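Chapter review: from sequence to fold.
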Amino acid sequence: MSADEKAKAKTEQAKGAAKQAAGRAVDNERLTAEGRAEQLKGDARQAKEKTKDIGNH
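The token string follows.
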């Protein structure tokens, strides 16, 4: 996994988790959903890069 893509994935996951927690704290379903979606985007990016890494070995 390239360092840049790994960093992007981790950032998306962290931002998503924070947004999701904030949404839950203020009982805002939309914010919670946005956070979860952002977290999933980071998860997908990370999985894609791991797949690339496996294919390169």
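Two observations follow directly from the output. The chain is about 90% helix and 0% strand. Helices lie at 3-25, 29-55.
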